[in-house]
Design goal:
This protein has about 550 residues and is an alpha+beta fold. Helices cover about 20% and strands about 40% of the residues. It is globular. The relative contact order is 0.09.
Amino acid sequence: MKIGILIKDYNDLLNWELRIINRILKDPQLKLSLLIKDGRLAHKHSNSKNRTLKHNFLSKDILNKALFKIQIYIEKKIFKEELTVDKKKIIKVLKNTPTIELNPTEEGDLNIFSNKDAKKIEPFKLDIILKHEFNIIRGPILRSAKYGIWSFHHGDSAINQGGSIAFWEIFRKDKTIEVTLKQLNSQFDVDLVIEKGFYNIHWSSVNASLMAREASISILFKNIRRLKAGNYTPKKLFLNYRYTYKTPNFITILNYMIKFYKKLLNKAIESVGAKIFGIRYNCYTIFIGKGQFMNSTLSELKPVKLPKYEYWADPFIFKYKNKNYVFFENYSYITKKGKISCGLIKKGNLVKISDVLDLDYHLSFPYIFEENGIIYLMPEASGNNRLEIFRCIEFPNKWELHSTAFENEKVADAFFFNDKNNDKWLFVNKKANIKNIQLDSELYIYRVDSLSLKKIEPHKQNPVIINSALARNGGSIFSYGNDIYRPSQANIRGDYGKALNINKIEKLTLNHYIERNIKTVYPNFNRKLKSMHHLHQTDELFVFDATYKKL
C-alpha cells in the first residue's frame, strides 16, 4: 500500500507524527512513496515573523493571547514531550524520499489546490495521503489518492473551536476528548468519518493534548488494516455545530489558570501529607455482598477493615474446599508497589490475610480460575511488560510461572472467557509503551488455543473499543439471567476508575464484537467514596472495590 504525507518542516514534526512515519517505514506491507511540502514556506518564513509581531501588536486581544501563550509555555515545561523514536534517523530517511512542493492559493482559511497540483501526485499512484500540513483543503487534490486524504480532528466534531487541543474540553468539564479520523471531502458541513476514539481528560491541556495525539495513532493503523482487508466504509456525518468556540478570552484563561495551579498545589499537598503524615489518598477498599450485584442495595454493605499504609483493590472470589477466598491487589503506600494477597471471607470481612505473589514489579488484577483441576492466576504484570499466567503448586501461597505472551508490550486487566462453542477468548487492555498514554482506552480480544498461548488470533476489529469511558476491564465476564455481562471502568473527567459500567455482550465472533452499556454505577451509596472500578460476581457472592478520597 502506497502512502503519501502532506508534511511540515521535518524539525517541526512532533513525536506522535514521527511514530506514525516510523511504523509506516517498518511495515513491509506499507510504502512511504511521496512527501508533499508547502512550496510557499520559504516565502512565508521570510515575512512571517514580522507579520506575526505586527498582527499581535495590533490585535485587540493581545493580552489574552500573551497570557495564553505563557500558560502553555509553563505547561510544556512541566509536561515535556517524550521523544520515543530516533528523530535524526527518520529525518535522514525522509530526505531520501520522493518529494514535491505544491503552491495552493489562499482564500481565508482555505488552501485551494489546482488541477496542476493534483497531476503532480498522480504518477505516484497513492492509496492514501495523510494530512500533517496545510489548512482546510479544497480542490482536485482530494481525489489524488485512491482512498483520499486522511486527517485527524482532535476535538468534538460537533463543535467548531479554536485554541489548544483539550483546553475547551477541560474548561467545559467534558467526560472525554474526542478524536476523529476522517477522509477529507469538499463539503463543508459533511465529514466522512472513518472512526472515532475517546480519551480521558487531564487537568493540563498540554498533557491532555499529548495523551490524545499519541493514543490516537492506533485508530489510524487499525483502519489501514481494515482497508487492506477490504473493509473500508467511511460514514457520512452531517455537521450541525452546537457551539463555536474561539480563542479563550481573558476571564476564561484566568479561570483555567486558577484551576490549574490549584490542582498543582493540591498535588504537592497530597505528596507532603502522604510522606509526613501517612495520609492515604485515593485509598481503595473492598465490599463483599451476597446474591447478585445487579439487584443489590449497595448502601447496606460495609467495607472490609484495612491495615495502615495499604489499600486493597481488584478483588476476585475463589472457592476452595467449600471456603470462599478473595484474591486482591495489596498496594503499599510505603513501597509504592502492589502485590497479590488473599483472605478468607468471614461474616462480611476478610480474615487470615496472606501474601500470595510478591515480585520485583507491580502486580494487580489477580484473575484466578480453575481448568482441568488445576488452579491458575493471571495477574496484571504490565510492570514486567508482558502477560503472565501462574500455576498453583500449593494453595494459596505457592505458584510457578506457567506461560507468557505479549512480550515487551504493555498489557493489563486480562481474563479468559469460554463461550458455548468451546472457543476460548482472551480479553485484555493494551497500549503503546509511551509514558503519555494511559491503559484505559483500548480493549483487545483474541481467540486462543489454550493456556499455553501458543496460538493467538487477533479479533478482526482490534482494538474493538477505543473509548476510555468503556474500554478498560473492571473484572471478568459474569452471567445474569440468560445473558452475559462485561464490567468495565468509566475513566472520565480526568479520574481513573470514576464509575463501574455493566455492559451486555450481544455478539462475539472473530469478525464481530457488540456490547451495549446497560448501566453505569457511581459510588453515591457512600458520601466518603469518590470512585469504584471493579466487580467480580459468582453464583452466590459478589465483591467490588471503591475509593475513599483519603483515609
